[in-house]
Design brief:
The protein folds into four domains: about 130 residues, Trypsin-like serine proteases (Thrombin, subunit H), CATH 2.40.10; about 170 residues, no CATH class; about 120 residues, Ubiquitin-like (UB roll); about 160 residues, no CATH class. Helix content is about 20%, strand content about 40%. It has eleven helices and 33 strands. The strands form five sheets. The chain has a six-stranded antiparallel barrel. The protein has a six-stranded antiparallel β-barrel with strand order 11-12-13-16-15-14. Helix 6 packs antiparallel against helix 7. The longest helix is centred in the first third of the chain and has 20 residues. The chain starts with a helix and ends with a strand.
């Protein structure tokens, strides 16, 4: 009997709470152009209503008392309306995810909850961005994305530390952390630093099964009413990276959200999705909504200082990525394959970092992952114009403090940094595919010595070169390759140079620094010329300079020609030169990460 009374009382209490959250007779905002109250008419003491979701998908009415208008608080001629939130927000405080919650006075829209006034305050004081300022974003929507340079991987990231984001004691934008789902726990300590340096915070999140692709939801025309939760999608699929705000304005086509910048990119192309709130965490320090992204309903096209603009019904442009991870046994046979598919937003600033995170997360999520695992990667990147990148590498554990899984991800991200760092043209990527083999041992081999039958040869002769390498924890390995001496080579002293890929790649890698205006096709060609580090390279060299310019290698260049070329160039297009020229080259595949170098003297008679 007591149990039945308790259940009845709980049901009555839940109905009472729901009734208190949404006052009787108060109708939530609809889609369509609303009546607007300009900031000049907003006065201290006005009673307002904000709409936001605390749990589920239905927004609730929150009473707001207007404190006044803070002039130029958000920049030149950018006023902020101050308000004190009551109701349920009085307990939760101004929470992450409330950004964009529309605020109405007498049924007229005055703006969006977008800012909070410091930490540890018991008062739910919010800053409201005037709707007039947010509507200005639509005037910028015809502009095209600027040619922004890609972000290099900072040294602090490699050291496992990060530059802290400075927090002011004045008005701050409400947090919009990046929520990761399908992410391995090791992603957070390694990648928090790099995203903090770009002004973002990573957090554990979730997404519904509907967000496996960026196809448009069937109900996109009636989605995202003011007060609804909205999600900004950076990655969707087997891994999801998104963030959430609240819809401020929806006229049936255009949607305004947040009331402050998200990534501060400007023009962009990003999926716009519906969202749901699992719970709103109450806290005086870091209150936040725990959310899921659900279905895509359009595309965000602007990310500006005072909000984001999206268009309903527009399908976003994303980069499809397919990663096939193969677990190998000691005999080199694949006994398990795990394939991950996801889509990445196209952005000069964020795409390289998201590709890097996706690769690291895929490797770390395998049960076969171990400290002494070696990763053999073969990747193909297709551009919309038909050009392709053919990428090969092996990454093995070493004495460095960076694990091989992270080295693999950094190598992968570096290729996209080079593409998106092109100062002439933005790359248009069609698809990305990669196969990653997990080899259950440390596969490294250092070059120890080499041997040739004779140190004197005739022009046109073929030289058998035996190379001796020392693997990690194993006996010495011998490999043989053959160098063909050119038939017309002049008599003299030469050198056979045996080396790893890094030595040969170093000078060519500097050419983009010597010429910041390389065409995109030249950048693609230069990346394709990079040597793979699981091959053993040999070259017959002579003391004549080699010049590297753009994506071209000019061997055996006379000094007079070099002087003429250099004098005809501007300071921004200098030449890179090496003191020696390879007159013959050879390489052999070697299923180890080859390190070190060795040279032999040779005389051509």
């Amino acid at each position: 009997m007591n149990f039945r009374l308790a259940a009845a009382y709980a049901a009555f209490l839940s109905v009472s709470i729901a009734t208190a959250q949404t006052p009787a007779g108060m109708e939530r905002p609809r889609i369509g152009k609303p009546a607007i109250m300009p900031v000049s008419q907003v006065k201290k003491g006005m009673k307002a209503i904000a709409w936001t979701v605390f749990e589920g998908t239905q927004p609730e009415a929150v009473p707001v008392e207007i404190i006044g208008v803070w002039k130029n608080a958000n920049g030149p001629k950018a006023d902020v309306i101050l308000g004190r939130m009551g109701g349920r927000a009085e307990r939760t405080n101004v929470a992450g995810g409330m950004s964009g919650s529309p605020v109405y006075v007498d049924g007229k829209l005055i703006g969006a909850v977008a800012l909070r006034l410091s930490f540890f305050s018991p008062d739910a004081i919010c800053g409201i961005t005037p709707i007039e300022s947010m509507l200005e974003i639509d005037e910028l929507d015809q502009s095209k994305p600027a040619q922004r340079a890609a972000v290099d991987i900072p040294a602090e990231f490699l050291a496992g530390t990060s530059i802290p984001v400075q927090q002011s004691l004045t008005m701050q934008p409400i947090d919009t952390p990046l929520m990761l789902s399908g992410a391995h726990p090791s992603v957070f300590p390694y990648f928090n630093g790099i995203f903090k340096n770009m002004g973002m915070q990573l957090a554990q999140g979730g997404s519904s099964a509907a967000l496996k692709a960026t196809t448009l939801s069937q109900d996109w025309k009636t989605s995202l009413r003011p007060g609804d939760t909205v999600s900004m999608i950076l990655v969707s699929g087997d891994i999801n990276i998104s963030s959430g705000c609240t819809v401020t304005y929806n006229d049936g086509s255009r949607v305004l959200i947040c009331g402050h910048a998200f990534l501060n990119i400007g023009p962009l192309n990003m999926p716009m999705a519906k969202g749901e709130i699992l719970w709103t965490l109450a806290s005086t320090f870091q209150p936040t909504k725990v959310s899921n992204a659900t279905e895509v309903v359009g595309t965000f096209t602007q990310d500006r200082h005072l909000g984001m603009l999206g268009h309903l019904g527009e399908r976003p442009r994303m980069i499809p990525v397919k990663l096939a991870l193969r677990s190998l046994n000691a005999q080199g046979t694949a006994f398990k394959t795990n394939t991950l598919n996801f889509e990445v937003m196209e952005s000069q600033k964020f795409t390289p970092q998201l590709m890097m995170l996706g690769m690291f997360n895929a490797i770390s999520g395998m049960n076969e992952f171990a400290d002494d695992t070696t990763y053999r990667i073969a990747a193909n990147v297709t551009l919309a114009n038909g050009q392709k990148l053919d990428l090969r590498t092996m990454q093995a554990p070493s004495d460095l403090p960076v694990p091989a899984s992270l080295q693999s991800a950094m190598w992968f991200g570096d290729k996209f940094n080079k593409l998106f760092g092109n100062a002439v043209r933005m790359p248009d990527l069609g698809s990305v595919e990669a196969t990653i083999d997990l080899i259950p041992e440390r596969r490294t081999a250092a070059i120890e010595s080499a041997w040739i039958p004779s140190s004197e040869v005739e022009p046109g002769a073929e030289i058998p070169v035996k190379v001796f390498l020392r693997p990690y924890r194993g006996g010495r390995v011998e490999r043989e390759l053959k160098l063909k001496v050119p038939a017309g080579l002049a008599a003299g002293h030469y050198r056979i140079q045996l080396s790893e890929a890094a030595v040969l790649n170093s000078l060519q890698a500097m050419t983009p620094l010597a010429n910041r205006f390389m065409e995109l096709n030249q950048t693609v060609s230069l990346i394709n010329q990079e040597r793979a580090n699981n091959r053993l390279y040999a070259a017959l060299v002579q003391p004549r300079p080699t010049v590297y310019t753009d994506e071209k290698t000019l061997p055996n260049l006379p000094s007079s020609v070099l002087n003429v070329m250099q004098n005809g160039r501007s300071a921004s297009r200098s030449l890179i030169a090496a003191p020696e020229t390879a007159v013959a080259e050879a390489s052999v595949p070697f299923d180890y990460v080859v390190t070190g170098s060795h040279s032999l003297r040779l005389t051509v008679k």
